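Troubleshooting log. The previous structure file for this entry was overwritten by mistake, so regenerating from the original sequence record. Sequence copied from the archived sheet and checked twice against the printout by T.R.
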Amino acid sequence: MSQTTDLTPPEERIWRAFPRGESVDFRAAEDEDPALGDTWGAERTVRASVLRALLLKSPREDGEIPALKIKGARITGILDLKYATIDAAVRLSHCHFDGVPDMYGAQLRQLNLSKSVLPGLTSAALRVEGVLRMTGCRMRGPVRLGGVQITGALFMERTEFTAPDDSEPVLQLNQATIGDDLWAPEMRAHGQVRLTGASVAGRINLQDAEFIVPDGTALDAQNLHVGGHVRARCLRAQGRVELRGSRISGRLDLLHAHLSHPGDTALRASSCVIGELWLRRGDRIEGALNLRRSHIEILTLEPEMLPDQVFLSNLRYTVLAPHEPAERRLPMLERDGEPYDPHGYEQLMAAYRHVGDDDAARLVQLAKQRRRRTTLIWYGRLWGYVQDATVGYGFRPLRAAVWLLSLMAIGSIAYGLDHPRPVKADEAPDFNPVFYTLDLLLPIINFGQESAFAPAGWHQWLSYALIITGWILATTIVAGVTRTVSRQ
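Regenerated output below.
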């Protein structure tokens, strides 16, 4: 073919080095910037068609393992490896690509594009039998890796993704299958990153990564499956982080994270199954937090990070950390702006009981009854206020004792200063103001005082008040105790 007969000197060097797997380095200095590749001269320019012919022809030498290893070259044209099967490792690092490589449906042993500058990459349905490395790359157009299958790891640390417009995501890894880790600390994406339906057998590292789509979804990772941890410490996201329906076996670590999407949802992790979720030591979330219908074994959540809107309906968790007083946890159950949902209170109560904090659990139960009271009709609310004021819905029984002692003291003093007249003077026992008051207050106890004396005037009105108050106290105490016992 013509490319093998009219090779330029740089192309001849590559052709000779390939069968022995030798590296060809065109760089003039170690720190030379590939972004300036369009100014590089002919001494380091290689045609993409020559590289394609070399990879497809794969010349060999006995006892040697062929490999394409190039550093610091300017690659002109389009490297078209669509549907190709390449047995040799391909390493094109510190290179400048004029055209968008097309590797759709190709099968490669290994691909290394580290520290190269590309106008984009079309590699949907690509299969890599080893590692795909894009460390430190600068991608100036969409990177299409949807449906890629990588048996090893995917490395994208310090890679920058940008695009001339927002017509499509800058990085597409939807439906990707990665047999090891996805390693992308300090990655920068000025445009949407899509990981919908992707499967990562190992870990995902997004520490210090940055995702910027201020008016949309910055990271779309719906139905993501991760076999290990997701390390996203110090992550900065301007735009929605979408994790709906994801399954993360290990920990979703968002320590020191900054999540911002004002006026909309900043983090949506609804209908997820997550081993541990860490949201602490970071800035206050700007935008709503949605954890509806998720199942999280250990939820580490600092109240200071919670935004004004928190959606927790049907969220299930076993442990809630760090241990905080109930007064600091309860406000998050009132920030959903939706009708009363008892499930959130039950979950929080169970978390406190799990660590043996029964006092906090009772406070949560009391808050639940007060929230429920707002949903009742007027007479239900009135009765609720009575139960709350008297015995705290049964969760503050000492309050009933204070009421009884106070009323007993009032009645004893009042009747002690001015005795009611006996019904039958010759049969009446000696008047005792304390036991007479107790007879009025306690409906199930009879000391023989109430039936023997007949109050008149203000005595009679005071007795009516004590009888009614006694019945109310007795009813609320029984209702509260019954509710408490049923929760044990």
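The longest helix spans residues 458-487. Archived copy saved in two places this time.
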